[in-house]
Amino acid sequence: MPGETLIELEGITKTFGSGPAAFQALKGIDLTITRGEFVAIMGPSGSGKSTMMNILGCLDVPTAGIFRFRGVEVQKLDRDQRSLLRRRYLGFVFQGFNLLARTTALENVELPLLYRGETKAQRREAAMHALDQVGLVPWASHTPAEMSGGQQQRVAIARALVTAPDVLLADEPTGNLDSERSVEIMELLRRLNGEGITILMVTHEEDMAAYAGTIVRFRDGLVERIERGAEELA
Amino acid sequence: MLGSTLLLALREIRRHILRSILTTLGIIIGVAAVVTMVTLGNGVTASVQNEISSLGASNFIVFPVRTDRGTIRPFDEADVRAVEQQIAGVTIAAGNASANATAFYNGQDWDTRVEGVNNAFLRAQSIDIVDGRPFSNDEELAGKNVCLLGIKVRAAIFPPGTSPAGARMRLGDVSCTVIGEIEERGRGGGGADDDNAVYMPLKTVQRRFKGSDKLDYFVLKYDEGYAPAVIQASLVDLLRERRLLQADAPNDFNVIDTAQVNQALGAATGALTAMVAVIASISLLVGGIGIMNIMLVSVTERTREIGIRLAIGALAREVQLQFLTEAVVLCALGGLAGIALGFGASIGIASLIDVPFVFDPMINIVSFVFASGMGIVFGYYPARRASQLDPIDALRHE
Q1: B299/B301 Cα distance (integer angstroms)
Q2: pLDDT computed for residue A233 by the predictor
Q3: Is B126 in the same domain as B236?
Q4: Does residue B295 sit in the same domain as residue B229?
Q5: What is the mean pLDDT of residues B287-314?
Q6: Last residue of a domain, one of B196, B229, B251
Q7: What is the reported pLDDT for B117?
Q8: Domain check: are B388 and B240 in the same one?
Q9: Does some domain include residue B256?
Q10: Do both B136 and B213 map to the same domain?
Q11: Which of B51, B53, B188 is nearest to B117 (CA)?
């Protein structure tokens, strides 16, 4: 239900390498994200926002600290368990779209369902529904090469949505798009957020961050400031 | 899960159809070679065994050989009678004397061989008469001018569709009455073509063609209840005694055991099969390395894809299974193509070199399973590598 705590970070650190060459990307992050939030993570290059995103996406584990997702301590899970977590609860949207080439939009969207052992008919139905959510049903049988960047990103969003995840993680989703397409994508994300999905987005564009209800600003591996959105303040 | 993995594998293969075909070419050729060689080998074995059995499984062939002094002492009918009567286990002993002659009938002529044999010889060699009758006792004893025709002679000088039985034909200067035909035989044990021959009573050939009562060789058939080695030993003893050979003198005759010839041919076929197996293994190994190479290329090329799959929640073992499945499907398809190619090649070559096409389901199944196994062996490492990729690095891969 909205308002319930979904993600809790306590004293998260992440160190890459060891010895004198060690680099501490995160230096102790405390953060709580509730269900239904639209969070933008901002910060200059090297501020640790990508590392944060990888940890939030359960792709990486913190060096120290506690990361609770739905009450589960993710840092204690092994690789396969984290995979299962991603499969069930997380959807990813990347800056570079990362669609499979020479594969139709429909097949791309179906991809996460292949790991769920659903029937072909179930997959087809769910994938068409997801394409419908992003307004690309007519493009179902086109390959990425035949689509614009904005359309490709919408396919990627459909792929993230097809499993009905709790959280959508978007890493610079508009980074490769012109401003008009960017606005389209952000409107889409805002609409999906309105329908109840929690969105965590990394961006360095203030315009895009403005769509989020919460902006978390990173600097030098630490949270510099958290700005709760207008609607919450109002 | 397996269904969708198979689907993904087939999609991936279809996506790189030319590369897939080229990659599996090694497997295709390897399997085709094995299937073809084994099938042809079976055909050759079958036809050799067919001829051996026509020679008689439990037979000895005895013939004189040139001594150090350059002389040959042929056997005669008395030797044959002695062998038949004095050696336990011998059921038939029968001599043969043959000569070349030209067969004439109705203006046609044909160069052939006249085999002087009695019914006992025909029985010992399992030579069957079709369309006609064997020699009578009287014809054998008196050396009458009657003959049985080999199938090629009959085809060469008699019009098709007519029965030659009762016809009078001529062999060189000798005229004779045809009393029957011999079944189709193929090439005989001694390399002579049994089908291109005319069979006359032994005495007739000795008198009319050879001018001597000697034999070229004789055969003997033995009861299979007796040990061939024992029979052969007493045979050699008896013949040495009859030919008054000194104890230190070498045999001036030779005894061939057709069972041994049979074994030797079997061993030769076995050696051939082993050689084929080695060649095939090498070719399949090369094919397998090709598969491994292309799978490694594929893993590198699709690093990003693997990253995406891992990010959306594929387990390491699912990624591994996917690549392994791809390799196995590739190899299995190669195996099927190889079997099809081998099947076609076997039929073609078998008819070309005139051996029967003997379909062996076992070798087809074995090569298919083996080819698919290659996929597991050579797909394992690339698949493992794919599954161990870190999703974050894989997603960043350019």
Answers
A1: 5
A2: 41
A3: yes
A4: no
A5: 90
A6: B251
A7: 92
A8: no
A9: no
A10: yes
A11: B188
The pLDDT score that the predictor gives to residue B397 is 83
pLDDT at A234: 34
B131 or A30, higher pLDDT: A30
Q: Is the pTM of this model over 0.90?
A: no
Q: Convert the pLDDT of each residue in B302-352 to its tens digit.
A: 898 899 999 988 999 999 999 999 999 999 999 999 999 999 999 999 888
Place of tokens 């040959």: B72
Q: How far apart are CA B156 and CA B174, in angstroms?
A: 18
Asked, for residue B257, whether it belongs to a domain, the answer is no
Looking at the fold, whether B217 and B331 belong to one and the same domain comes out as: no
Mean pLDDT throughout A194-200? 93
The answer to whether position B58 is within a domain reads: no
Query: What DSSP line would sit under B306-373, residue for residue?
Result: HHHHHHTT--HHHHHHHHHHHHHHHHHHHHHHHHHHHHHHHHHHHHHTT------HHHHHHHHHHHHH
**Total number of domains in chain B:** 2
B177 with B296, same domain? no
Does B288 share its domain with B311? yes
Q: Which domains does chain A have, with CATH numbers?
A: 5-233 (3.40.50.300)
User: So what's the pLDDT on residue B192?
Assistant: 64
- Assigned token pair, B23: 């990659």
**Residue B68 belongs to some domain of the structure:** no
Residue A230 to chain B, least CA–CA distance (Å):
33
pLDDT 10s digits, B8-29: 788 888 888 898 898 888 889 8
Q: In this structure, what token pair is assigned to residue B129?
A: 């008469």
What are the two backbone dihedrals, phi and then psi, of residue B99, each rounded to the nearest 5 degrees?
Answer: -150, 155
The CA distance from A226 to A219, in Å, is 12
Contact list, A115 vs chain B (CB under 8 Å) = 1, 309, 312-315, 318
Give the side-chain half-sphere CA count within 13 A for B161. Answer: 0
Please give the residue range of the domain that contains residue B125: 74-251
Mean pLDDT (chain A) is 90
Chain B contacts in chain A segment 72-131 (CB below 8 A): 79-80, 83-88, 90-92, 94, 98, 100, 102-103, 107, 111-112, 114-115, 117
A vs B, Cβ pairs < 8 A, gives: 59
Summarised one tens digit per residue, pLDDT across range B157-177 is: 888 888 888 889 999 889 999
Q: Are residues B240 and B279 both part of a single domain? A: no
Inter-chain CB proximity B311 and A92 less than 8 Å: yes
Of A91, A100, A112, which is closest to B305 when you measure between CB atoms?
A: A100
What pLDDT is attached to residue A232? 47
Q: Are B76 and B159 in contact (CB under 8 A)?
A: no
Of A160, A143, A151, A148, give the one whose Cα is nearest residue A104: A143
Question: Residue B153's CB: how many other CB atoms inside 10 A?
Answer: 28
Phi-psi region of B85 (alpha: psi -120 to 50; beta: other; left: phi over 0): alpha
* Residue B2 pLDDT level (bands cut at 50, 70, 90): confident
